[in-house]
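Q: A reviewer asked whether we had any structural model of the full assembly, not just the individual parts. We don't, so I'm hoping you can provide one. Inputs are below.
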Amino acid sequence: MIILPEEPTPIAKVPSTENKTGGWRTFRPIIHYEKCIRCYICWKFCPEPAIEFDSPDAFPAPKPALAKFDTVKINYDYCKGCGICANECPVKAIEMVLEEMGGD
Amino acid sequence: MRKLTIPEEEYMLPGHTACLGCGAAIAMRYVLKALGKNTIISIPACCWAVIPGVYPRRTLKIPLLYTAFEVTGAAISGIREALNAMGKEDVNVVGFAGDGGTADIGIQALSGAVERGHNVFYIMYDNEAYMNTGIQRSGSTPMGAWTTTTPGGKKRMYKWEPKKDVAEIMVAHHIPYVATATIGYPEDLIAKIKRAKEINGPKFIQILSPCPTGWRHSPDKTVEISRLAVQTNIFPLYEVVNGTYRITVKPKNLKPIKEYLRLQGRFRHLTDEEIEMIQKHVDERWKELLKKERCSNEK
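A: Here is a predicted structure for the entire assembly that you could use as a starting point for your response.
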């Protein structure tokens, strides 16, 4: 007797967001918001994507003209710490810091 | 409020298993941003076959169909014709294959698919070796590179044959749209895919995607290296619409090829004479491309 599977073809249904790839990280990117000009270049080049938008007033803006633009924040659950954001940042507002043992 | 230069909508979820700083993951992100949700993608054995994670994980918000290594062209032809028979002609059908699955193993299926003229996209993300299985040399590996199957040694057995020019092979099929792009120029890449979307017929786009693991460079340099590839002319960005060439990015300050090679561990062994030889090869190819642009625009 041939037992057929419930579905004719295997269909992947579990989103990969269950896979917290943040544990791969050796270096943690830290955004220095007092330098951030809100250009979104880090968001543009993130391979995960682990950079998300936040409301404009979540962090203080370096200049009043920038206050109306959204801020960015890094989702450390998924950031693998590749450092592309820090390398591409035109104002060098992202710093790569060595992860400490026993942190979150 | 935010000012973005590329579409905001994401069709890729985080949590995939690409290496740190993967160029192919960035390439997929841009391709899906440009194509939108009405898309079906087919992937053969390549890095992208493992990036979504093990079954039952998925990382794309659109349907993805895995195929065998050599049949991406045949698979997308079949999906296209089946969708047409169902009356769903507005769905984009995309084959997304690596350079091994395009330049070496999959070339017969690709050649057949574009020759038959199906309305499909074929995207080759070019990481210049079989990276998924452990950095073996492919037809698309550039001159002078180290791979695990061209390991060098006393006889300096590196890959000395020039890189296979798949975009030109596709131009020779007289298809309506052929382009090269790279992840360092996302606006250019997305504009090319959007332009291709308006064209009915087979479309081929080659995307240079640096691979930190196989190219032996620091993962944070992925985007920088892809940009340098264009600024040193080793990977010129152009498009060919119905046989008419147009170079989309002409480097203003041309950089020597050494700057591109020295960032990558796979070229670390090169001597100054060998770099000179590669520089000569790159210059010749660039002149050839300028000639093609000039000649094809003379009507």
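A: Points you may want to mention in the reply: The longest strand of chain A covers residues 27-31. The mean pLDDT of chain A is 89.
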